[in-house]
Amino acid sequence: MNTPLALPRVHRSMQALRAWQWPSRHLGPYSPVVRFVALSVLLLGLSRAALIGWQWPRVAATDSWAHVLLQGARNDLMTAGLFAAPMVLLLPIFAVANRVPVWVRACTWWFAASLLAMLFLELATPQFLVEFDGRPNRLFVEYLQYPREVLAMLWGGYRLPLIAALVAVAGTAIWTMRHFHQCGCATRPWSRRTVLLAWPLVVALLVLMIRSSFQHRPANLSTFAFCDDAMVNSLVANSAYSVLTAVYGMKNESHSSDMYGRMPVSEMIEHVRLGMGVAPGDFISTSLPTLHRHIATVRHDRPRNLVIVLEESLGAGFVERLGGKPIAPYFHQLGDEGIWFQRLYATGTRSVRGIEAVVAGFPPTPAQSTVKLSKSQRDFATLASVLRKSGYRSEFVYGGESHFDNMRGFFLGNGFGTVVDRQHFKQPSFVGSWGVSDEDLFDMAHQRIAALDAAEQPFFLLVFSSSNHTPFEFPDGRIPLVDAEKQTVNNAVRYADFAMGQFVDRARRSDYWGDTVMMVVADHDTRVYGDDLVPIDKFHIPGVILGKDIAPLQITSVASQIDLAPTLLSLLGVDSEHPFVGRDLTRTLPEFGNAAPVLKPRAMMQFDRNYAWLEADRATILLPDGSAKHFAYDHDKRELRAGPRAHHDLANQLPNQVNTPAIVAVMNVAIDPPSTARRPKRARSLRRSGARPPMPPIWMAMELKLAKPHNA
Length: 712
Hints:
The chain is α/β, with parallel strands linked by helices. Helices cover 44% and strands 12% of the residues.
C-alpha cells in the first residue's frame, strides 16, 4: 500500500545523490581521490574554525584570524595530498593488471581510515591544547608508547569526552565507508589507456599540493608560524600534519641540531668550558671535553647521604613565596628552613627533562631526553654513577610503573642499584591511574632510607611523586579542598604539598637526618603555555635544600636545574671527577660569599623548538632558523618585552681559587653527533679513536648569539 508514496521519495533521494556525485563521477577511478581531498579539507577546516572560536581572545590579539583560516586550508591540502599519495602511486600497477575496480575498493578502506585518523587527532586536540598549549606534537607521539597509562588516565579523568569521541569516530567510520562505496558504484569506468594517460597529471597535482610552494624548499611547520604566540601558530597546521611532522622529526632527530647552525668543535668546547665555571687546569680529558676534577667546597667528618624529592608538575605558580597562589603552604614554609632558590628554572616541560637536568646535570637538546635515547642507557654520568665511585648505594622510588618514559632502564644502567615501583607496594592505601598516592610513596621512601641508613653505607635516594598529575586522583579526607570539585590541579597540588610536608617532618625526627642532605624540587610546571615564544614564567619552579648542617639562605640569583647536581656534590662533601656542564653554585653565586669576577647567573629553557637563555632581567630566545630575539624580562610582572641584546660575559676571568684534584666517573656523550660528512676533521678523528664528539649544544649556539651580532 505504501509503495506509490515511497517511490517518489526514493526517486528524489536518488536525484539528490546523483546531483552530489555528478562533479566527480566523470573522473573515473580518480573520483575517490577528489572526494577524499574535499572531505578532508572540510573536516579539518571546520575543526580549525571551532578551535579559533574557542581560543578567540588570543587569536584576535594577532588580528589574523583570516590568515589562520586561509593558511590552514593550504596545510589541509598538503595533508590530504600526503594521505592520498600512496594510493595514487599504486594505481598504474592495478591499471596494467586490469584490476582498477580492486584499487577503487582499496581506496575505500584507505581513505576511510585516513579520515578517521584525522578526526581522532582533531578530537584529541582540545584536551591536548589545554594541557600543553598547542596541537598534538612530539609529546603526543611519545605518550602513545604507553597505552596502559594513557588509557587509565583518560578513563579516570575524561570518561565522558572519551566515550563521546569513540561514538563520533564510530559514526564517522560507518558514514565514510558507505559514502566511498556509493562513490565507487556511481563512478563511470575509464579505459586503461585513459587512466594511465591522466596519471602523470594527477601525480603532478599531488606533488604541488604536498609541496605547497614553488620555492626551492617545500612548505613546512615553520612556514605557517606568523606570530609570537606559539599556540596560535599551532592552529594553522592541522593535528594530523603536526603529528606526522613529529614522527618524521623523531626519525631524524640525531641531526636535528643542524637547524641551529654549526661551529668548529674546538670553539664549541672552549665556550662550554668557560660557561661551566671550572678552572682550565681542572679539565682532565680531550676525548670527554667536560670531564673535570671537582673538589667539594664543604667538608664533613663523613660524606652526607642525599635524598632528592622530585615533585611532579609543581610550578612556582602554586607557591606564595614565589608569587603564586597560597596552595602549597609547606613548600612556602620551607623557604625559611634551608637554601631556598627564589629564581630556579626548569629546563623543559616534561618529567624526563627534569630528570635528566636534576639527576644528570644535562641541558635540553632537540633530541629526545637522554632518559630515552638508546646510547645513554649505560655509562652515562648521573649523580648515582658519580656517587657510586665514593661508595654510595643509589635507589629510585616511584609509585607508578617505572618503565614509563624508560626510567627504569635509564636508572639501572647508570648507577642506580635498585628501582622500587608499583609492584613493590604491598596493600597501598590508595591507587590511582598513575600509581599509589604520594603518602604511600613517602612511606616507602622512609622505609628504604631507614634500611639504607641501618646498613651504615652512604646512600642516594631519588623519590619521584605522581599524585599531582591529571586526572588528579588522591585519597579522600586528607586535605581541606581548595576547589569544590575534588579532582582539580589546585587540590592535587595541595595534597602533594601535604604529603611532602609529612615526609620532611618525619625525616627531621629520624636518626638519619643528621647525616643527610635533602633537596625538594619540581620537575616542571603543570602546564606550560602563554603567548610568548618561550613562556619563561611557566618554567619557574620551587626548590630548597635542607639538612641539619644546612643554614637558611635565600638565593635570589637566577639558577638552572642543571646546576643542582654539581652544587649538591659540594654540599655532600664529595670530591669527584664528572662531566656535568652545570655550575657548582657554591663557587659562582654571590649568595655563597663569592667575590667578583664570577659568571653571570643564567638559566636555559626548551619550549618545543625554541630555546631561551635568561640572565637576570634579560632573555635571548633562539629560533629554529638560527635567528635570535632579545627581550627584557620583568620577574615581578612575569612578562617579556622587547629589549636590547643581553650582555655576554663568558670572556671574564674565572676565579683563581677554582682548583681541584679528585676521584670518580666517566661519561660517553649520548646524543648522536651530526653527520660525518659535515663534521669538522677534529670530530672525525675523535670518532675514529673511539671517543664520541659532543653534539653542538643549543645553549652553546645561544651563547654565540649573545656574544656576536646576528650576521657574524
